[in-house]
């Protein structure tokens, strides 16, 4: 895939940042590989899988701990023809989220501070999260909101520490492991759905 510069997107990112995002997406192939400023491996297969997982009407995606914002920017470009999909990132104040425009980022004061956007977001993404307690805090405080699914992406070796978090919340289904999703072998993509609420 090769993308020409999109003038609309270029206007909302500094030129140097836009060049980095364009260079990164033009490097992506079916083979998972690491691109600059992204902690996980990236491939066309991963972007397809994430896109298919997110797709829906009026979906708001919140990436909690988005780092540089590179994955989120690449995903937004990949899904640019999907209407009514909004992708935002959350990071700790002082972090450099260079790959996303300011309008797509919320800064929180500390590692365990929660985003005000979580209550109304339909999809939460946790990419290489460090502490299961943050996930637990989000579920406790905002799990009764609009969120429908949680996407977890990180090292396979880390998943067990996070799996136990969902066991304490009856509103959530058993985790689904998304195989052949375009990651390197030591990484894992997990999807957890919230049970549909039945209205009497």
In short:
Helices cover 30% and strands 20% of the residues.
Q: Please write the string of helix (H) and strand (E) elements.
A: HHHEHEEEHEHEE
Q: Which overall shape is indicated by the principal axes computed on the Cα atoms?
A: globular
Global Rg:
16 Å
Low-confidence stretches: 1-11
Instruction: Provide mean pLDDT, rounded.
Output: 87
Total number of helices: 6
**Alpha-carbon distance between the termini?**
48 Å
Tell me the helix content: 25-40%
Report the sheet with the most strands, covering strand number, pairing sense and barrel closure.
7 strands, mixed
* DSSP, total strands: 7
Beta-strand content bin = 15-25%
Strand order of the largest sheet: 3-2-1-4-5-7-6
Please give a structural write-up:
This protein has 200 residues and is an alpha/beta fold. 30% of the residues lie in helices and 20% in strands. Strands 3-2-1-4-5-7-6 form a 7-stranded mixed β-sheet. Helix 4 (70-78) links the parallel strand 1 and strand 2. Helix 5 (132-142) runs parallel beside helix 6 (156-167). The longest helix has 13 residues, at 15-27. The N and C termini lie far apart (48 Å). Mean pLDDT is 87; it is low at 1-11.
């Amino acid at each position: 895939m090769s993308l020409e510069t999109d003038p609309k997107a270029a206007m909302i990112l500094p030129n140097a940042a836009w060049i980095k995002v364009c260079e990164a997406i033009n490097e992506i192939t079916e083979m998972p590989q690491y691109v600059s400023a992204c902690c996980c491996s990236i491939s066309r297969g991963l972007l397809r899988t994430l896109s298919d997982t997110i797709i829906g009407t009026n979906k708001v995606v919140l990436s909690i701990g988005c780092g540089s914002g590179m994955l989120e920017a690449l995903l937004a470009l990949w899904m640019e023809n999907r209407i009514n999909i909004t992708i935002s990132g959350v990071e700790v104040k002082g972090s450099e989220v260079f790959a996303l425009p300011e309008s797509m980022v919320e800064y929180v004061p500390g590692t365990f501070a929660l985003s005000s956007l979580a209550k109304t977001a339909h999809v939460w993404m946790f990419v290489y999260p460090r502490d299961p307690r943050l996930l637990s805090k989000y579920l406790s405080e905002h799990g009764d909101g609009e969120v429908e699914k949680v996407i977890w992406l990180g090292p396979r070796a880390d998943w067990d520490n996070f799996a136990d978090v969902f066991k304490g919340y009856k509103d959530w289904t058993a985790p689904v492991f998304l195989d052949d999703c375009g990651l390197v072998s030591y990484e894992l993509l997990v999807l957890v759905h919230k049970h549909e609420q039945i209205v009497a």
